[in-house]
Specification:
Blueprint lengths: L1 H20 L3 H5 L6 H10 L1 H6 L4 E5 L13 H9 L2 E2 L5 H5 L5 E5 L14 E7 L2 E6 L8 E10 L3 E6 L31 H15 L3 H4 L27 H30 L1
Length: 274
């Protein structure tokens, strides 16, 4: 009996809790005329119903005067852009003030679409000069959407923050390549130095390590002007004097005549003795 009496109370509590956590973004924004165009675009793109199915959400709303050319976008592109303005977490000014290192990276609804690339599904928020600046996390994307005010918040289910202008995420319209996409590296043959240049670049080192040409061509001691071989000897005959063979030949002839004459005298005396 006791358990049966408690059951209706539990059902009522669960029903109240579910109704308290549920919200209707279209109905909420309809209370703020300054965001009527943004509210219409959420319904046109079909994103409003997806927002209502979330339990915790932060909507970065754009006022009518700063909506820009969003109204001229196709339904598909518009939904992508608006999805980057819906953060899958609860943020209000107090929570932003408690950001670690005064910067935070936020996950948007576009990240869960499966179409995001190069950080297109993320936002960066930083504190600059006392203001909160929102921008796409894509490398090189402009970050100049300033937080103007908090429109409404229901901790910790839904928060609506007003930005000064729409967040620009590169590549969402299909006409731009995300800035962070690295271009392919093309190595052209002209960029490589020719072999001749490499040899010329190494020649100073080779010349520094090998003996110089002046050292290899230096005259040897035998070719030096001061060497005995190249200088004329003081005792040696000059070019005008007769050669050594020419001087010795008359002397040897005279000696041979003397010897022959002596033998002749000896033979003559022997014959006379007999």
């Amino acid at each position: 009996m006791l358990n049966l009496s408690i059951l209706p109370l539990l059902c009522s509590f669960l029903l109240a809790a579910s109704s308290a956590s549920a919200f209707n973004i279209t109905k909420i924004l309809s209370q703020y005329p300054d965001y009527s165009t943004f509210n219409e675009l959420l319904s046109k793109s079909g994103l409003a119903s997806e927002i209502n199915n979330r339990g915790t959400i932060t909507v970065l709303a754009i006022p009518n005067g700063a909506i820009g050319d969003l109204t001229s976008k196709s339904e598909d592109v518009l939904k992508r852009i608006l999805a980057t303005h819906v953060v899958l977490d609860y943020y209000d000014p107090m929570k932003l003030q408690r950001m670690k290192d005064k910067t935070a990276k936020m996950t948007t609804m576009y990240q869960q679409s499966g179409k995001a690339a190069y950080d297109q599904g993320f936002l960066n928020v930083t504190v600059k000069d006392g203001s909160f600046i929102f921008g796409s996390a894509v490398k090189g994307a402009q970050r100049d959407s300033k937080l103007d005010k908090s429109v409404m918040n229901q901790p910790y289910n839904i928060s609506i923050l007003s930005l000064s202008q729409p967040i620009v995420t590169p590549g969402l319209d299909g006409t731009l390549i995300p800035v962070s996409a690295p271009p392919p590296k093309v190595i052209s043959p002209a960029s490589a130095p020719p072999p001749a240049e490499k040899e010329e670049a190494k020649s100073p080192e080779e010349e520094a390590e090998s003996p110089s040409e002046e050292e290899t061509e230096a005259p040897s001691p035998s070719e030096d002007g001061d060497s005995p071989a190249s200088s004329p000897d003081a005792d040696s005959p000059t070019a005008d004097s007769p050669p050594a063979d020419a001087q010795s030949s008359p002397q040897s002839s005279a000696g041979k005549l003397k010897v022959s004459f002596g033998l002749f005298v000896v033979l003559a005396s022997m014959v006379a003795a007999y």
